[in-house]
TrEMBL record:
Protein name: Peptidyl-prolyl cis-trans isomerase
PANTHER family documented for this protein: PEPTIDYL-PROLYL CIS-TRANS ISOMERASE (PTHR10657), PEPTIDYL-PROLYL CIS-TRANS ISOMERASE-RELATED (PTHR10657:SF4)
Coiled-coil stretches noted in the UniProt entry, renumbered to this chain: 10-37
Highest taxon of source: Eukaryota
Domain PpiC per the UniProt entry, residue ranges: 56-177
Catalytic activity: [protein]-peptidylproline (omega=180) = [protein]-peptidylproline (omega=0)
This enzyme's EC code(s): 5.2.1.8
Pfam families reported for this sequence: Rotamase (PF00639)
Keywords: Coiled coil, Isomerase, Rotamase
SUPFAM superfamilies xref list: FKBP-like
Species the sequence originates in: Phaeocystis antarctica
């Protein structure tokens, strides 16, 4: 190591130590405020349920799902998670394929909805929603699995989600217009 490198490193260490001491001082002052009760209280988190919209869902189970049983045959599902992931990806590709053979134009919302409904009815491993073409109705925050809830909050109207993983399996969501 060159002497300049050693000096520069020492200077950097001194700067870092000063920064750490300043941070320690700030934290000490905050602790003192909290202990004395003069600090402003944390704002309360509003956990009131919020209407997220109307959705449809496709579930593809795998052998590691919480209940790896097919609702149609009542037999155990033996697909690996990778096989289920490939099935879901192919379904999403078909659902979101461009309309009218024009590969430059995105799929029309009505076509996406129609394709999603058909795919859910034929392929979803959620019997309750598959019987209704994937329709799970109006969704309120906190009623779905946390991963689905988070995606539902961000999903644009008319959009199909990417894969969502829960204990039940792999999901696609469609937010209704």
């Amino acid at each position: 190591m060159e002497p300049d490198d050693a000096n520069r490193s020492l200077a950097e260490l001194r700067d870092e130590l000063e920064d750490t001491e300043r941070m320690f001082q700030i934290l000490s002052e905050e602790v003192d405020e909290l202990e004395s009760g003069s600090a402003e209280p944390e704002p309360e988190v509003d956990d009131t349920p919020v209407e997220l919209g109307s959705f449809s869902m496709i579930l593809i189970k795998h052998s590691g799902s919480a209940d790896p049983t097919c609702w149609r045959t009542h037999r155990s599902i033996d697909y690996s998670i990778d096989e289920s992931r490939n099935r879901l990806r192919k379904l999403r590709d078909k659902i979101c394929a461009p309309s009218d053979f024009n590969v430059k134009q995105p799929a029309k919302p009505k076509d996406v909805k129609k394709r999603f409904d058909a795919a859910a009815k034929l392929s979803s491993d959620c019997g309750e929603s598959a019987r209704k073409s994937g329709d799970i109705g109006s969704v309120t925050s906190g009623t779905l699995a946390p991963a689905l809830d988070a995606v539902a909050r961000r999903l644009a109207v008319g959009a199909v989600s990417e894969e969502v993983v829960t204990l039940d399996g792999l999901h696609l969501l469609l937010r209704h217009p």
